[in-house]
Amino acid sequence: MGAHRNLTRSYADELRLFGTPAAKVGLGLLVAVFLLLPTVVHDDFWLSVLIYVGITAVGAIGLNLLTGYCGQISLGHAFFIGSGAYVAAQVGGALELPLPVWLLGAALAGAVLGGLVGPFTLRLRGHYLAIVTLGLVFIGEHLWRNLTPITGGNSGTAVQASPAIGPVDFDGLTLLGESYSRNQGWFWLVWGLVAIVALLAKNLVRTRPGRALQAVRDRDQAAEVIGVRAGRYKIGAFMLSSAIASAAGALFGSYQQFVSPDEWNLLLSIQYIAIVIVGGLGTIFGSVLGAVFVGALPALIDRYSDAIPGVRTSVGGDGFISVFALNQALFGVLIVLFLVLEPRGLAGIWLRVKTYFKTWPFSY
Amino acid sequence: MTAFLQNCFAGLSLGSTYALVALGFVVIYKSTGVINFAQGGLLALGAYLGFTFSNNLAVAFGVAVLLSLVSAAVVGATFERIVLRRMVGQPPFAVIMITIGLLFVLEPLITAIWGFDQKQVNNPWNIRTIEVGSLVLGVRDLWTIGLTALAVAAFFVFFRFSSLGLAMRVTAFDPEAALAQGISARRVYAVSWAIAAALAALAGILMAAGPGGLSPSIGFIALAAFPAMILGGMDSPGGAVLGGLIIGLAEALTRGYQDELFSWAGDNVSVIIPYLLMILILLIRPYGLLGTKEVRRV
Question: Membrane spanning segments where (chain B) (predicted)?
Answer without folding.
Answer: 12-29, 57-79, 91-116, 142-167, 188-208, 269-290
